[in-house]
Design a protein that fits this description.
Strand content: 15-25%
Largest sheet: 7 strands, mixed
Number of helices: 9
Number of domains: 2
CATH topology of the largest domain: Aspartate Aminotransferase, domain 2
Oligomer: single chain
Order of helices and strands: EHHEHEHEEEEEEEHHHEHEEH
Structural class: alpha/beta
CATH architecture of the largest domain: 3-Layer(aba) Sandwich
Number of strands: 13
Shape: globular
CATH class of the largest domain: Alpha Beta
Bound molecules: pyridoxal-5'-phosphate
Strand order of the largest sheet: 2-10-9-8-5-3-4
CATH superfamily of the largest domain: Type I PLP-dependent aspartate aminotransferase-like (Major domain)
Radius of gyration: 21 Å
Helix content: 25-40%
Distance between the termini: 27 Å
Length: 357
């Protein structure tokens, strides 16, 4: 049976990429070695590493005055690394739009005068706050660009206006829609949703913001350490970076982020239009703030939600259970989810509705 994996992360990878990795797994391009067993100082790996950096720069149109860092520890490690590296005046404001934004804000408080400028907790994070006013003399404002659990995202309308750098957690939307990198001071993202298997975190940081880390900042968490060493200060997650490189090549071949955005908008519209046309399923997110990547929805009762998840799995629609903070279902439809996956889900939803109304 064909399986469509709606997991929020780690999540689907493009079929073509998995097949290529499989072909080269035992003997990478005649080297006689697998990428999993190569020295990270070998010429073979060096090529993979540098090409992946270059391809990501191309895909996101990252200006020369930004470093791209490949680090570890997940996006969660960046909740601490960002304040340790960027707090110079010692103040930052956070917009809390969900669970991960809240974690980032809570972590930052340990390192300086970090405050919550706005939150959408009052409505269970179903919207993105608009026209947020920030304090003065800030080192940065932090946002979570796509909220994986609650299914909201920033758009032009809600993008914060601040006279300091914007730091964005793009974990669940990186490479899914075009972003103007020059509008950010720093972007970070765990790779395990739109890019690669788990183990890699991407940091894109404006060069002038690097080099001011706190004296107590661990060497490994200093952006300067990683920037000076092209992210080869210690052993990087070589195989994950190799997989990321394959995904970058695949996306370039598909026409880049612009094309992915068109497909993602199409997929999300199919699903939201269906949910909105049904009196059985409901998505509670403010329409303008709906995520293109994570679509939470509920059936009329908890019993029906549980039944839906169970039957969906039997039909090859796996990992569609909603996060425990929200309940119901969540369809994560990242770049690698084909249109057919969303169409198959909608067909199943129609059938389930007819049988359980
Ligand atoms: C928006 C967002 N930020 C941060 C995280 C935490 O990422 P990690 O597991 O890489 O630490 C997640 C994980 O799902 C996420 O969705």
């Amino acid at each position: 049976m064909k399986v469509y994996n709606f997991s929020a992360g780690p999540s689907m990878l493009p079929e073509e990429v998995k097949l290529e990795a499989q072909k080269d797994f035992v003997d990478y391009k005649g080297s006689g070695m697998s990428v999993t067993e190569m020295s990270h100082r070998s010429k073979w790996y060096d090529e993979i590493h540098m090409q992946a950096l270059a391809d990501l720069r191309k895909l996101m149109n990252i200006p020369d005055d930004y470093y791209i860092l490949f680090v570890q520890g997940g996006a969660s490690q960046q909740f601490a690394a960002v304040p340790m590296n960027l707090l110079v005046k010692g103040r930052a404001d956070y917009i809390v739009t969900g669970n991960f934004a809240n974690k980032a804000a809570k972590e930052a408080v340990k390192y300086g005068d970090c405050a919550v400028a706005a939150s959408s907790k009052d409505a269970t994070y179903t919207y993105i706050p608009e026209n947020v006013k920030f304090r003065s003399d800030l080192d940065y404002v932090h946002i979570t660009q796509n909220n994986t659990i609650f299914g909201t995202r920033y758009t032009g309308r809600t993008y914060p206006v601040a006279d300091c750098p914007i730091v964005s957690d793009m974990s669940s939307m990186i490479l899914s829609e075009e972003v103007d990198v020059s509008k950010y001071g720093l972007i970070y993202a765990g790779a395990q949703k739109n890019i690669a298997p788990a183990g890699l975190t991407i940091v894109i940081v404006r060069k002038d913001l690097v080099g001011n880390e706190k004296p107590y900042c661990p060497t490994m968490l200093s952006y300067k350490t990683q920037a000076d060493a092209d992210s080869l200060y210690n052993t990087p997650p070589c195989f994950t970076i190799y997989m990321a490189g394959l995904v970058f090549k695949h996306l370039l071949k598909m026409g880049g982020v612009k094309e992915m955005q068109k497909i993602n908008e199409y997929k999300a519209k199919l699903l939201y239009d269906f949910i909105d046309s049904s009196s059985f399923y409901k998505n509670s997110v403010k329409v303008e703030d709906r995520s293109l990547m994570n679509v939470p929805f509920v059936a009329p009762t908890d019993e029906l939600n549980a039944k839906f998840v169970k039957e969906a799995e039997k039909n090859g629609l796996v990992s569609i259970k909603g996060h425990k903070l929200v309940g119901g279902m969540r369809a994560s439809i990242y770049n690698a989810m084909p249109v057919e996956g969303v169409e198959t889900l909608i067909e199943f939803m129609k059938k389930f509705e007819t049988e359980n109304k």
